[in-house]
Amino acid sequence: QLQLVESGGGLVQPGGSLRLSCAASGSTLDYYAIGWFRQAPGKEREGVSCIDSTGGSTNYADSVKGRFTISRDNAKNTVYLQMNSLKPEDTAVYSCAAEVSYAVCAMDSPDWYDYWGQGTQVTVSS
Question: What pLDDT shows up at residue 2?
Answer without folding.
Answer: 95
